[in-house]
Design a protein that fits this description.
With 399 residues, the chain is of the alpha/beta class. It has two domains: 101 residues, Winged helix-like DNA-binding domain superfamily/Winged helix DNA-binding domain (Arc Repressor Mutant, subunit A, Orthogonal Bundle); 228 residues, Rossmann fold, CATH 3.40.50. 52% of the residues lie in helices and 11% in strands. The strands form two sheets. A seven-stranded mixed β-sheet has the order 6-5-4-7-8-10-9, sandwiched between helices. A three-stranded antiparallel β-sheet has the order 1-3-2. The chain is globular. The N terminus is likely disordered. Bound molecules: the ligand CC(C)=CCC/C(C)=C/CC/C(C)=C/C=C/C(C)=C/C=C/C=C(C)/C=C/C=C(C)/C=C/C=C(C)/C=C/CC(C)(C)O and S-adenosylmethionine. The site of ligand LPSJV3QT has 13 residues, from helix 8, helix 11 and helix 15. The ligand CC(C)=CCC/C(C)=C/CC/C(C)=C/C=C/C(C)=C/C=C/C=C(C)/C=C/C=C(C)/C=C/C=C(C)/C=C/CC(C)(C)O binds next to helix 8, helix 11 and helix 15.
């Protein structure tokens, strides 16, 4: 069965194909040839069960066998671990333990789960380091659970992932796009229909709240990496409810802020600016950032978690629109999680690659791919600014 509107989705996705050169492809030709030969030879060895047995028995190679076996096991079990995390979030265990260790019987009472089931979950959560045992039949936050109570955005993200897990229950159906994905309904603007700008308050509420809750993860990285104090007016395009602009205005007191988003979202941002006491320093504009002119007057424009929602030709259209709104020498900040980040490779092409497939539009891009699109749209001096947590966002700055 073809998904309603399927052909349009197929066209948009194939208009933006993911082609990842090997990370070593920048190496000179002969080096790359040898690197590939070495990998092919290694793979032939590793594929041989007799070699696997010998390598596991031999002291110096045993740790590599154990490491790769554990990595493969985690790939297989990852979904199970994510359900442990989701269960803890739904039972509000992280909030309940935020003030310190708690006796298990009290958690039985608080969660309403039967004791056996709760103990099974607690043991699982301890095993993946979300929780930790304490003497006297008590449980506490573990190393990986400890940051969570202070990050409501992360807790909201975990809950939101139930939608993605449902879409991934049949991953080949998702890849073949022969069944509607629930994630597509969650992000109604991804449809790109003529009616995008007419989305109602009820259509945008859920995703706008999630983006606001999780914005702090991105904001703190961008503001730590880029000093906005040299600018006068910042326009955040696709700025959601304005959480990034509120934080920017707090770090740069001279800055006026403008937000452009769909009308129903811009309305939500206006309420947030008013609540933050930014009436005199803020303006919101509702419209379609592909087809409507963007407001002029800003010397810096930001696109935060916007480009990866869209195929290349649309990103180009948006970047050209941004360029038209900037004065000569004006500055563009593009911040979003990027593909191919060293140490966070899985986040880009594996996580966001499939997330955006479920959403029905867009793709993760490397910093080089985004830079190329920015240059094609007429931006110059495109440079990469390192962020402390590439897992949360990368940052490109251009003139
Ligand atoms: C104190 C002593 C002695 C030692 C301590 C040693 C030490 C320093 C340990 C480090 C402890 C520490 C400070 C840990 C901090 C951990 C942090 C900050 C973890 C942060 C994790 C962030 C995560 C997991 C972020 C996840 C983000 C996600 C899943 C974002 C998803 C975004 C989506 C789906 C966006 C959608 C938008 C769309 C549609 C694509 O446009
Ligand atoms: C993934 S959200 C990011 C929001 C915010 N920048 C953040 O990081 O939290 C993408 C934003 O782009 C807006 N958007 C999508 N398509 C749009 C369009 N055609 N015109 C204007 N805004 C649009 C959405 O309403 C949404 O607020």
């Amino acid at each position: 069965m073809a998904l309603e509107g399927g052909p349009a989705i197929v066209d948009t996705l194939s208009a933006s194909p993911t082609r990842r050169p090997d990370r070593g492809a920048s190496a000179s030709g002969w080096l790359q040839v040898w690197r590939e030969r070495w990998r092919d030879w290694r793979n032939r060895m590793v594929a041989d069960p007799a070699f696997q047995r010998r390598a596991a028995a031999f002291g110096p190679t045993r740790r590599f066998v154990r490491r790769d076996a554990a990595a493969l096991f985690d790939l297989m079990a990852g979904f199970v671990y994510s359900q442990v995390l989701l269960s803890c979030v739904r039972l509000r265990l992280f909030e309940r333990l935020a003030d310190g260790p708690c006796p298990v019987p009290r958690l039985v009472q608080a969660t309403g789960l039967d004791e056996d089931a709760l103990r099974r979950l607690l043991a699982a959560a301890v095993a993946v380091q979300l929780l930790d045992w304490r003497q006297g039949d008590r449980v506490a936050l573990g190393r990986l659970g400890a940051p969570l109570p202070a990050q409501p955005g992360l807790l909201a993200m975990v809950e939101h992932h139930a939608t993605l897990y449902a879409d991934l229950a049949d991953p080949l159906a998702l890849l073949r796009r022969d069944r509607p994905a629930a994630m597509a309904a969650y992000w109604p603007y991804a449809d790109h229909g003529a009616a995008t700008a007419q989305l109602a308050a009820t259509d945008v509420a859920a995703y706008s709240e999630l983006m606001t809750a999780s914005q702090a993860l991105v904001t703190q990285e961008v503001l730590a990496a880029y000093d906005l104090r040299a600018h006068r007016v910042l326009l955040d395009v696709g700025g959601g409810e304005g959480a990034f602009l509120v934080a920017a205005a707090q770090t740069a007191p001279q800055l006026s802020v403008r937000l452009f988003d769909l009308p129903a979202v811009a309305q939500r941002a206006q309420a947030r600016f008013d609540a933050a006491g930014l009436q005199g320093r803020s303006r919101t504009h509702g419209g379609d950032f592909f087809n409507d002119p963007l407001p002029t007057g800003a010397d810096v424009v930001s696109l935060v978690r916007v480009a990866f929602d869209h195929p290349d030709h649309r990103v180009l259209q948006l970047l050209r629109n941004v360029r038209r709104a900037l004065p000569p020498g004006g500055c563009l900040l593009l911040a979003e999680p990027m593909a191919g980040e060293r140490g966070a490779e899985a986040m880009g092409d594996a996580y966001f690659g499939l997330y955006l497939l479920a959403m029905g539009r867009g793709r993760p891009r490397t910093a080089d791919e985004l830079s190329a699109l920015m240059r094609e749209a007429g931006f110059t001096d495109v440079r990469r600014v390192r962020t402390r947590m590439p897992l949360q966002t990368g940052l490109l700055v251009a003139r």
